[in-house]
């Protein structure tokens, strides 16, 4: 028993923060360069069909470096457009969720009482329902469109921001600078805007960075099911759905959009892990 207790334990493989941040930068730079610089590529045209040039393999024709899809459309152009669409949807939905959750969390944490119980009760009820299932029901009932998808993604993901902000406010409301402001006669709106909001925003931004990858996953899943972005606008999930029919003969139709999703989500996660692993700064007073 003593020998077993004294035996060295295997060490977990931990990536250094610098390495993870570098990997994140490379992955995100590849996707953002594709989305931003892709439209500047000579011959950028994601819509024109050419059935005589359908399913050209990658690198065979430099006019179509990523090949063409079954309708003869340039896959590089469609991939660049789809990456930009997914990024914009994710950023817009996260902005709605963060702003809504931040506002409700500030009000619930500061006011307390029945209002706090009501808002958190609504949030807990929403958490009990799977987000993807709720979105499928709402999109099927209201119809599929890009604007509606952004609004629904934003309204169904605010709870985490609200609970984070509320817990932070409950901690801060007993601090000396808050008590001093109340004693001096500051109004609730003044305290929330001048003292609580600046302390809550950095925490909310960190959560938003992680949540962006989740939104990309949900949006791609809905588009794959035909409930997200609708043709002719391309989406990464929609491109995977269109290419899965040709997975055995032309796998590049599915691999390229899947790699774009992997780089986008993986880059965000690596960036979050690298920043979280950094030791806190010790600034002197």
Automatic annotation (TrEMBL):
Keywords: Cell membrane, Membrane, Peptide transport, Protein transport, Transmembrane, Transmembrane helix, Transport
Cellular component annotations (GO), alphabetically ordered: plasma membrane
Membrane topology: Multi-pass membrane protein
A family per Pfam: BPD_transp_1
Parts of the chain that traverse the membrane: 21-41, 79-107, 127-155, 252-272
Limits of the ABC transmembrane type-1 domain: 83-272
Localization of this protein: Cell membrane
Keyword Magnesium: no
Family: Belongs to the binding-protein-dependent transport system permease family.
Name by which UniProt lists this protein: Peptide/nickel transport system permease protein/oligopeptide transport system permease protein
Organism: Albimonas pacifica
